[in-house]
């Protein structure tokens, strides 16, 4: 799980990037990444895996998520069924900050931006409403798109049918400041998740003691290192469960050494057993 810094290039003559994607999931790259831009993701229908910050879960019947500046996340087509169709809009924080300073009418949107530090999942009728608004934006000119996006944000800011994905906010400046050290840790997990991971080795990798490492990792990610490793292994297992492998094979291939424990952790994170997940996907 390398944490990639993604450079976002706005559309021509625009301050936003508008992406409408409808293609087989195998054509997407679902890397764990972050960028300064706020990101709104609307998955039209179907199911997949949602990974925002330290939150990992399965969505069904489409998805609508607003992600704050520099909050790490994966693409929502992970483990999705074909065809996967989504609209993604990204906008630089300085654009919204400038508008908020100039227009007191946008005060309610500032609350939405603050909540986005946690990652926000929207539910209920607002998902259908926003989907229609985003589809209408596809053929708009740049100025019209920006105005329409502000209308989208206004609707979301006044909607209360949402869930916060991470209990603690993801602090953008900390993620940016500690990118190099975090990437070493994430890369180590990526390379060795199939084996028993020695926390002493990881602490030595970043030149701190084990107690300091545990405190540091919890402060950066709001979960323990063990929780992070389990979530990473479960994410990998979701992909393998869609292949022609038994639950036991997936269990051991992803670094778990006990099927009962694997089932317990998988259910805790995904809210389904591995067998239920496979059956429904």
TrEMBL record:
Gene3D superfamilies: Homeodomain-like (1.10.10.60), Jelly Rolls (2.60.120.10). The keyword Transmembrane does not apply. Pfam families: AraC_binding, HTH_18. Residues 183-280 form the HTH araC/xylS-type domain. The keyword Secreted does not apply. Keywords: DNA-binding, Transcription, Transcription regulation. SMART domains: HTH_ARAC. PROSITE patterns: HTH_ARAC_FAMILY_1, HTH_ARAC_FAMILY_2. InterPro entries: AraC-bd, Homeodomain-like_sf, HTH_AraC, HTH_AraC-typ_CS, RmlC-like_jellyroll, RmlC_Cupin_sf, Tscrpt_reg_AraC-type_HTH. This is AraC family transcriptional regulator. It comes from Pedobacter punctiformis. The lineage of its organism: Bacteria, Pseudomonadati, Bacteroidota, Sphingobacteriia, Sphingobacteriales.
């Amino acid at each position: 799980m390398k944490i990639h810094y993604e450079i976002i290039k706005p559309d021509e003559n625009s301050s936003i990037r508008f992406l409408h994607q409808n293609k087989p999931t195998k054509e997407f790259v679902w890397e764990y990444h972050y960028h300064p831009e706020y990101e709104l993701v609307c998955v039209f229908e179907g199911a997949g895996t949602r990974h925002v910050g330290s939150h990992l879960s399965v969505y069904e019947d489409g998805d609508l998520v607003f992600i704050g500046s520099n909050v790490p996340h994966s693409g929502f087509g992970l483990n999705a069924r074909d065809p996967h169709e989504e609209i993604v809009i990204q906008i630089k924080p300085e654009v919204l900050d400038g508008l908020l300073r100039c227009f007191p009418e946008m005060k309610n949107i500032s609350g939405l931006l603050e909540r986005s530090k946690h990652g926000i999942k929207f539910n209920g009728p607002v998902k259908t409403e926003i989907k229609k608004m985003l589809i209408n934006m596809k053929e708009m000119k740049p100025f019209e798109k920006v105005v329409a996006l502000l209308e989208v944000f206004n609707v979301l800011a006044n909607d209360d049918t949402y869930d916060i994905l991470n209990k603690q906010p993801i602090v953008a400046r900390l993620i940016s400041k500690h990118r190099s050290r975090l990437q070493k840790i994430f890369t180590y997990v990526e390379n060795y998740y199939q084996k028993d991971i020695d926390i002493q080795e990881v602490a030595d990798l970043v030149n701190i003691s084990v107690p300091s490492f545990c405190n540091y990792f919890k402060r950066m990610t709001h979960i323990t290192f063990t929780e992070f490793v389990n979530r990473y292994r479960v994410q990998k297992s979701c992909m393998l469960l869609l292949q022609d492998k038994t639950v036991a094979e997936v269990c051991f291939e992803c670094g778990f050494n006990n099927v009962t424990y694997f089932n317990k952790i998988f259910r805790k994170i995904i809210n389904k057993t591995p067998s239920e997940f496979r059956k429904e996907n």
